[in-house]
Amino acid sequence: MSAAILWHRWFHGDASLRFGWRYMDASTLPTASQAKATASRVVAQALVDIALAHDMASSEDELAAMARGDLMHVFDGALRIWLHDNPNGNVADRSTLLHLLEVTVLLAHVQWRQATLCASCVKTTTFRPHQPVRTFWLQWFRGDATNGTCPFRFLSPKMLGGRDPILLDWIITLTRWLSQPRWCHRKAC
């Protein structure tokens, strides 16, 4: 099943289940189906989180009420952002992004010339694939009020202890990049 079909069924179900799969409890399914249902939930929830974080909808219920064409338009936008085509700045380079995705994500992506993409991530991180560099830019100067974090430019590596090493590498790289002076757009870098 493609991610697009999963997205539609997540909100509208299919011929056998006339309700959105988001209401389905995986624990009530036969054991063989539980893993597929769990993987489906991970993919769908990541796409929903991205759509909401980028103001494509105000809630999951609003997504569910959309006409099919509008719903698939939101899916296309969320998937583009997830797969590293973010107008507000990409989260990280493609190899790092593979490690930042949710646990056991299965998603077809022909650009990588693989049948499926499998990646894992520590779930406790507050830096999600749906958080663009533009958001990090604001946090660099203003901090993250939701987590009570001071402006990121004042954080030392010691203060970031206990985080996922791959995530730390990304934060350090991005912090260095934001700290270096840049020429204006009229001059060569």
Task: Give a brief outline of the structure.
It is built from seven helices and two strands.
Structure in words:
With 189 residues, this protein is mainly α. The chain folds into two domains: 1-110, no CATH class; 117-188, no CATH class. Helices cover 46% and strands 4% of the residues. The chain has helices at residues 3-12, 31-53, 60-65, 68-82, 94-100, 133-142, 165-179, and strands spanning 107-109, 114-117. Strands 1-2 form a two-stranded antiparallel ribbon. Helix 1 packs across helix 2 (31-53) and helix 2 packs across helix 4. The N and C termini lie far apart (45 Å). Residues 91-130 and 181-189 have low confidence and may be disordered.
